[in-house]
Amino acid sequence: MGSLRGAVGQYVKACFALETFSGHTFSAALHDPGGIVVDIGCNKGDFAAMVLGRFDCRYHALEANPAMVALATKRLGIPVECLAVTGSEGEIDFHLSENSEASSVFSSIAGGGPGSIRVPSTTLKAWAIDRGIESVSVLKIDIEGAELDVIDSWDGGTPRPVQWTVEFHDFIDPSQRPRVLESIAKLKALGYESINPTWPDHIDCLFVDKSALSGIRGVRLLLGWRCMSVFHRARGWMRRLLRRRSP
């Protein structure tokens, strides 16, 4: 049943020009061939392998865990930068987890693990300026809570992603929920349309620059995504209601 539901979900997304790769949704229709894809929180390279296998792009992968950097570099055949993108430049404590995907700058998310290490850190803007990157086709962020600092420190300028595909982590640390909502509100205020197929959670959030939604195609995509958002919210409320009624 779960696989059938997943297949139906993927079909519905495809009808609205959306695809999900390793838990991250974005619109392939808005990706220009040869465009830049930035993967912050590459981990083992699952998302990267799927994107590189499907799309013509210039790929930048970043990961704070040195062990995962070595693994992903070997697997993908491209350089993976050992770097934490956060809200400041310098160095930061990175807490290792038994589950490599849960390693985080937040100990509350990493949980008990083998300890912490100091890793170099930077902001999204500083990283992009250092590499001469002004715009990004797809920006994927999955960094166990630090996405809040990345968005908080970004001023809406360089780099200007056409799409952000973000996993927020208030489902692990509920105390982050107010900041998650603030981050979403900030991106909307900076001109992004929000699509969240996981509402009322924020596990797979897509933000699309409205300036990229021009012409008839753009209007159709925008209207379709807003209809999807209504559906996902209705489904989310129904799930909440059923949970409350269950013994």
Task: Give a quick rundown of the structure.
The protein has one domain: Rossmann fold (3-Layer(aba) Sandwich).
Account of the 3D structure:
- The protein is 39% helix and 25% strand.
- The protein is α/β, with parallel strands linked by helices and 247 residues long.
- The protein has one domain: Rossmann fold (3-Layer(aba) Sandwich), CATH 3.40.50.
- A 7-stranded mixed beta sheet has the order 5-4-3-9-10-12-11, with helices on both faces. It has a 3-stranded mixed beta sheet with strand order 6-8-7. A two-stranded antiparallel sheet has the order 1-2.
- The longest helix is centred in the last third of the chain and has 31 residues.
- It starts with a helix and ends with a helix.
The average pLDDT value, as a whole number, equals: 90
Strand order of the largest sheet: 5-4-3-9-10-12-11
Per CATH, what is the topology?
A: Rossmann fold
Assign the CATH architecture.
3-Layer(aba) Sandwich
Topology record:
Elements lengths: L1 H14 L3 E3 L2 E3 L8 E6 L5 H9 L2 E7 L2 H11 L3 E3 L1 E2 L4 E7 L10 H4 L4 E8 L1 H7 L4 E7 L5 H7 L6 E7 L10 H13 L2 E4 L9 E5 L5 H31 L2
Parallel strand pairs: 3-4, 3-9, 4-5, 6-8, 9-10
Antiparallel strand pairs: 1-2, 7-8, 10-12, 11-12
Descriptive key words:
8 helices; seven-stranded mixed sheet; Rossmann fold; alpha/beta; three-stranded mixed sheet; about 250 residues
